[in-house]
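Batch queue: ligand-bound targets. Current item pairs a single chain with flavin-adenine dinucleotide. No template structures supplied; prediction is de novo from sequence plus SMILES. Inputs echoed for audit trail.
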Amino acid sequence: MYDVVVVGGGPAGCYTASLLSKNGFDVHVLEEHPVIGEPVDCSGVVGVEAFEELGLPDSLKLREISALTLVSPSDLEVHFSPASPLANIVDRAAFDRAIADKTMASGATLHLGSPVTDLQLRDDCVEVVFEEGVSGGAKLRARMVILAGGPRYRLQRKLGMGEPADFLKTAQTETPVRGIKKTKVLMGSQAAPGSFAWIVPFPKRGEEFARVGVSSKVVAVPYLKKLLERLCCDGHLDSPDIPIRSWVIPITPLPRTYAERVLAVGDAAGQTKPTTGGGIFYGLLCAEAAAHIATGAFKKGDFSEGTMGGYEKEWRQKLGVEIKIGAFFRRLAERLTDEEIDDLFRVVQSDGILASVTSKARFDWHKDVIYFALRHPALGRIFFKGLFR
Ligand SMILES: Cc1cc2nc3c(=O)[nH]c(=O)nc-3n(C[C@H](O)[C@H](O)[C@H](O)COP(=O)(O)OP(=O)(O)OC[C@H]3O[C@@H](n4cnc5c(N)ncnc54)[C@H](O)[C@@H]3O)c2cc1C
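Prediction returned. Tokens below.
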């Protein structure tokens, strides 16, 4: 019998596995794909803090994001350039592989091409059913399981952990571009209903590329196609007909992120920023909480719901307020009309408040800048208008 099986070899699963392995446990990661990090469903913008947390090499950075331009529905622009870079653009597949390499170096075993299809809770273990290459199904027994399979919730539902209440739909592509120097974020009902679109330029093999994507409350692909057509008309792209990948982002946590002998981390637990849907950093912070609680459970020999529930308390202590405030802000932002978004831009352009916003902005922590915006008389009035419609 193994100590821990981790379902999913993404950043949250691999980081949890490496921490547990360093603590002396026999850890096995089951990843469904034959290669770590692929396919990529991410724009690869990773906050400076997350980079430091993982101790990852600078070679993974494709570019620092030291400025970005926000674009309103009627093309008003706000240029945002903080004193020091907020985030790095990474090659997401290489980023995942770097974490997986660290995981294996810590002693954990990685099984590729091994999709987990079922879990069965027994008195002294969890039986993990998975598919194994051409030889068909196989079973592993582990004293604990970490669910880290990203935004898929069949196993969580089976274990009574539920699923996130709210999601963003996404569509993204990566393409060579011309003449786009800065990261752009586009808002409004024509760009990305209920969320935002992005253009993130970066260098690749000596050429300029960009990840162009849309997150939205409705199906995102048509909005991305429209954006690609616009980039084409403006001379930034040769053709709008390029492969698009669509996926989802959970923006609320699971009702319960634990069960007897089981913890969920990362997107598998819905641990993302409700404002932007970014989830890499939160997944890593929650991986630390999961490793801490799991280590305690092994020490006590107690894997009951009571012990596992300590995980939910611990990660909510780190992120609960951020997630609550972020979710409240998202509800207000989703109700804004295009005219109100334009009005917000005009206030920021005219009022000289950009410096205050900039001084409060942190890539992974949004509470302070949200408080500032909602307490500002002119901005707050616009944000709260929607509540009374
Ligand atoms: C278009 C888009 C853009 C994004 N951009 C950003 C960004 O710029 N910055 C940011 O911080 N976040 C971003 N995110 C969110 C980010 O990608 C996720 O929060 C992050 O990948 C979550 O990591 P994870 O390890 O929890 O899950 P994942 O990265 O999804 O990894 C889960 C792994 O588990 C495997 N798996 C799933 N089910 C099984 C199974 N049954 N058996 C075995 N293996 C399984 C999967 O193959 C995958 O390898 C973006 C998301 C999308 C969709």
